[in-house]
Amino acid sequence: MDHPQWPDLVVGVGAGRGVSVGEVAGLVAAALAGAGLAPGGVAELATVQAKAGEPGLMAAAERFGVPLRGYGAEMLAAVEVPNPSLAALTAMGTPGVAEAAALLAAGPGGELLVPKRASEPGGGRPSRATCAIARRIARRSPQDGRRPAVACPDGAQ
């Protein structure tokens, strides 16, 4: 069950240089809606470190009211992804950005809910963004035994 007060979704995003906030935010919103997931359930956006400074990605994270986390390409390359990309491997040194970032940000036991999908900018323009959605595994809080706590990859709560 999706609890917006306890965000447990992470959205991995891959993007080309100069991608627009509209293309990224539209893709993420469509992926969430297509899976029946609420935007309020998103805890963070994640990408490859080399793209974490892209204005379109930073603005999309801001639109969703979440942080944007960047991971090194070598960390992403260590994550097995269901839909590897030769283009990502050639450009970034990792066979996947969106799925790998989502799974890495979800932490141990994270589940890929929405595999990589590409934006559809229209007007004959090529896609400049991909996204994938994963869910962090919620567990009982050791403090009170009732409140869900999200297992974070870095151990922070």
Structure description:
This protein is α/β, with parallel strands linked by helices and 157 residues long. The chain contains 5 helices and 7 strands, in the order βαβαβαααββββ. Helices cover 29% and strands 25% of the residues. The protein has a 5-stranded mixed β-sheet with strand order 3-2-1-5-4. A two-stranded antiparallel ribbon has the order 6-7.
List the helices and strands and how they pair.
Elements: E1 9-15, H1 21-34, E2 42-48, H2 55-64, E3 68-71, H3 73-77, H4 86-92, H5 98-106, E4 111-118, E5 129-135, E6 138-140, E7 148-150
Parallel strand pairs: 1-2, 2-3
Antiparallel strand pairs: 1-5, 4-5, 6-7
Q: Tally of extended strands? A: 7
Radius of gyration: 15 Å
Put simply, the count of helices is 5
Quaternary form? single chain
Outline the low-pLDDT stretches. 144-157
Strand order of the largest sheet: 3-2-1-5-4
- Beta-sheet strand percentage? 15-25%
Strand-and-helix sequence, N→C?
Answer: EHEHEHHHEEEE
Could you give a short account of the major beta sheet? 5 strands, mixed
Q: Could you tell me how far the N terminus lies from the C terminus, measured between alpha carbons in angstroms?
A: 20 Å
Mean pLDDT: 87
Basic shape: globular
Helical fraction: 25-40%
Broad structural category: alpha/beta
